[in-house]
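S1.2 Input.
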Amino acid sequence: MYQVAILLFHDVEVLDFAGPFEVFAVTEVDGKRPFNVFTVAEHSPVFARNGLSVNPTYRLQDHPDADIILIPGGASLLADGTPLGTRREMHNEVILNWVRRHMRTAELVLSVCTGAFVLAKAGVLDGLTVTTHYSVAHQLQELLPAATVAPEQRWTDNGQVITSAGISAGIDMALHVVSRLLGPEVAAATMREMQYAPGPHSAAGLQ
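S1.3 Output.
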């Protein structure tokens, strides 16, 4: 069974984490669930975008060993310029050290939307082809001169590291992971269970 740890933090984008959570949680193979999905956070509760209160399953220091870690996005600024979401967490050494530590042992490291900024600051994206929300792609490129930022791509697979574009693209990335690990038939069955119908740009990665 794959252990999947999804990071949560204040002002996280809801669909960024809930979409992939649903994909992994409903996937079945021969009546069994191949993914154990749980959320982790530095603090509890977490207040996501638009005020949703979420109770993470574990804290950063006490969760099971993870085969897959996922960093969602959620970035904004207050009127006075105070950073929120990933704009804040990309400078949080507790979060960055958690990423670096699990980067050494996890089979896959995933990001959704501006979660790529956290991975960038953790130093794991240099030399890779990555994506993020189109509106901040230029900022990610400035942060990562040694990487190629491709905002036109729904997701990018670099082997251990997989990044996705904005918000709903995390669902497509998670389905790609299911396909890669368990086969396209399992990914297709998961889409049917979710009644999810991706567009041509999304489905192409699941063939």
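S1.4 Remarks. The chain has one domain: 2-202.
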